[in-house]
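Narrative progress, year one. The postdoctoral researcher (J.K.) led the effort to move from monomer predictions toward full complexes, under supervision of the PI. The following entry was the first complex the group processed end to end, covering 840 residues in total.
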Amino acid sequence: MIKIENVRLYTGQEYFPNGCAVTDGAFVRYAGDSKGCPDAPGARAIDGKGGLMMPGFYNAHCHAAMTLERGVGSDLNLMDWLHQIFPIEDRLNAEHVYNGTRLAILEMLRRGTVAFADMYFFMDEVARAAVETGIRANICRGCTSMEGLDSTRDLYRAHEGAGDGLVKVYAGLHSEYLTTPEVAAYALQVAKELNTGIHVHVSETKSETDGCIERHGVTPVKYFDQIGLFERPTIAAHLVHVTDEDIQILARRGVYMAHNPASNLKLASGVARVSEMLDKGVRVALGTDGPSSNNVLDMLSDMRLASLLQKGVFGDPRLLPARQALTMATRTGAEALGYRDCGLIEAGLRADMILLDGHAENMLPGPDPLADAVYSAQGLNVTLTMVNGRMLYQDGKFLTLDEDEVKRKALESAKALRVL
Amino acid sequence: MIKIENVRLYTGQEYFPNGCAVTDGAFVRYAGDSKGCPDAPGARAIDGKGGLMMPGFYNAHCHAAMTLERGVGSDLNLMDWLHQIFPIEDRLNAEHVYNGTRLAILEMLRRGTVAFADMYFFMDEVARAAVETGIRANICRGCTSMEGLDSTRDLYRAHEGAGDGLVKVYAGLHSEYLTTPEVAAYALQVAKELNTGIHVHVSETKSETDGCIERHGVTPVKYFDQIGLFERPTIAAHLVHVTDEDIQILARRGVYMAHNPASNLKLASGVARVSEMLDKGVRVALGTDGPSSNNVLDMLSDMRLASLLQKGVFGDPRLLPARQALTMATRTGAEALGYRDCGLIEAGLRADMILLDGHAENMLPGPDPLADAVYSAQGLNVTLTMVNGRMLYQDGKFLTLDEDEVKRKALESAKALRVL
């Protein structure tokens, strides 16, 4: 048991200026006002020093091992960038993915991320890195063929539920533009068979969306809906170029949108109509996308960006206010990734919590802690990250990985890939 | 003398993978490859540990003491927000401004800012705080009357050049919409008389710009040009809503634009046409604006935002590439604030330099350090901030101010202002 006292607590629904949280194993036993805090004999006590305790972040779309390619091909057109990335990825092996993912996990844990949805290669290695370090990972391969999708069965058998439920395995479909209707239908079949979800890129760029209309006569959203894909729980990454009808479909089908504001700007894909989509009932989660198009895996930074963008680009400072942005990055993200008992600090749910330094100058004076969490806080203000009741990061120290070793191995892999 | 070895050095023009810099008093004596580094007997040696040494940031538009109002009135329309801010500002006294400014300086130094252009009230206190802590400050009152502008003379006499040139005093004109043509002309007269520059808000919002056209028949840029304002060196903050003719005027007159991307989004003012304006010869510097509309004084964060916004909103990933963004935040900023011998790390110029942690996970693997500085680096990756040859911040410690005292005093002032 762990008892964290002397915090301002935001449970994801309620705010307690004098808060306290008690965990019991992987679960929250109590979260609320310090006056009602139960005795917890033998519990390890942690002084929160007036910091803001809140749910950790669920990164809804990532290609984590692309940390190894961070900084490659900046300021280029998409195709020119990909022509730099593809030869590097062609050299990738399992060890590289393990090393790159561990660097990403280190980066995410330090910045308060407790879970990530990952689409990449050699996904056994991602599962291994997640279980070893204690972070949640929803994994899939970004498949472009039936053979690729077939491997989802092995992945599922080997890792689904591993680490007391840390790992989830989804069927990964790269996108409409790199697959055929048969492959998309097969992704649905595999997801049904395994009773799991689907992770797919949808309507990231205008040319992709226009191309789908040319190829299939309908938008990517409608195309996937006609195939029946959204019958399964779906993470649809990007959704920048959508029609009003697309929005209706997404809302009706309960699709989880992974909004990636930084990546969408950097690759000049555009700005998604997030606030409008939320109003119309679409479930919007937040993602960083891979670190080679972002380039830092910091959900606090991207939560702020998401809110500022809606206000500035759609012309109303009231859009995507602090609480809505927080929900996007926490509870909705947990749901999107399939962690139904996560994303709120509430008795009986999993203990995935973080603490923001209440004495950091950028958090002062602090009349509105939730606004501060969205508009002022920075990833490096996180002082504690707990996943599934386990302390993974505290005050600059990682408790389940060796920081120096992780960095050294990542550099070795970057050299082997000729990034350096 | 200080000798900083074992750095990757970006001077603002050239990059040296094995760099070294030597200071002599307030100036850079050598900056370049470590092989050519002169002997510096008696110099204090600092191991840069492979970090990226680069020019510090010049924040071209701020209202620093608004740290005290951080978090007030989030997610509101401009007028509703101002109705929360104005009663607080009405209670402001000199001590509050001193305390709020010191909190801002602490926040900026930790994040690599070496200078800021400040427009607020009780500016003697800002000068005092700057000289005491060793940061550069270009100060002005945001005047709305001739009487206000008259006080510029006293301010100039008392503080211009203070602290070995740290402080500069400009004539501050709030804006077109809060002044008359007579007041604007008087700002020009005062600036001429003192042989100094002017700092003014211009075309921040569409309604301001439309209003000026209604009132005076011309855009704010043309209005000020007709008054002759731009004959003096001018910092024009915002310039979000400009015409093609405005851009020509700004370029021809050598006006320094202070681009404030975060504030312009948060208040839903819009996105300035920065990349196009740079192409057409406008000198664009970068500002944070005040911390009550941003809400963190972090030039690295806003430099990244500026670049991402141009790419994403104007639809081309090649816009505002890394080097151009760096120049905006450093050398052009130094020029905008009137520090002509600052903004590059070059022998004979002032030593305003920072160091970014080369071992931070978000800076790895590091194939393109300048891209990393713009897209990956975060304010809290700064490990050293030097202004005018003097170490002000190193490895989490402030050398010229007492962090705990600054925070305590700021909280006292926030309470007195009834923010808390």
